[in-house]
């Protein structure tokens, strides 16, 4: 168990809808990262937060947004969902902003119908 | 941006044999190379990592080698066991003021099957 908790485990929704994915990092970790895993794109970095502030952005769509709260949990918001947004969404955390290995949660499987 | 190529996409070995997975990267500034193991229904789990100031690192049956000149790194698993069966991912990143180690670029993955 990595200590990173993601909820829900599964999410099924319709096109055009909006969902929120939640992540609780390992105790003491200040950095949170979101990744998307799909069959065609593989594992792709979306966004990073450190102690509440956005630090780095990857290939994150404008329809997607994230935030990290004072208690360090993070939420990824996906809106105007399309079929192609169906994927596994992983959250990872690390203690500090610099070099430290990432520990991944078990992901949220999003299915858009 | 960084591009990481991983080979082979599938690898089948007999229990006790060795397995080697290779990756190449494009960004010469990359300086951190982790390997992850992903089992069905779970998130990627870090199994070993190496920084660019080191050429080789070993942890029991697992080793990673890095050739900075050729921009490639490899994962070596010796004495494979059925429980080693999983998808393995290599990744690369570079630091930029300490903020980029977590911005990993992943390879496409290798499905390793170890037959008893």
Structure description:
Chain A is globular. In chain A, the strands form two sheets. In chain A, strands 2, 4, 5, 6, 9, 10 and 11 form a seven-stranded mixed beta sheet that branches. A four-stranded antiparallel beta sheet of chain A has the order 1-3-8-7, with no helix packed on it. By secondary structure, chain A is mainly β. Chain A has strands spanning 5-7, 10-13, 19-24, 31-38, 42-50, 53-57, 64-68, 74-78, 87-94, 103-104, 108-112. Helices cover 0% and strands 53% of the residues of chain A. With 116 residues, chain B is an all-beta fold. In chain B, the strands form two sheets. In chain B, strands 2, 4, 5, 9, 10 and 11 form a six-stranded mixed beta sheet that branches. In chain B, a hairpin with a 4-residue loop joins strand 7 (62-67) and strand 8. Classes of the chains: A mainly beta (113), B mainly beta (116).
How would you characterize the largest beta sheet of chain B? Answer: 6 strands, mixed
Helix segment tally of chain A? 0
Instruction: Please compute the radius of gyration of chain A using only Cα atoms.
Output: 13 Å
- Biggest chain contact: A-B, 28 and 26 residues
Name the shape of chain A in a single word: globular
**N- to C-terminal separation of chain A?**
31 Å
- The ordered H/E elements of chain B are EEEEEEEEEEE
Low-confidence stretches of chain A: none
What is the count of β-strands of chain A? 11
Proportion in helices of chain A: under 10%
Query: Strand content of the residues of chain A, in percent?
Result: over 45%
Mean pLDDT of chain A: 94
- The number of E-state strands of chain B comes to 11
SS-derived structural category of chain B:
mainly beta
The oligomeric state is heterodimer
Helix content of chain B: under 10%
Order of helices and strands of chain A: EEEEEEEEEEE
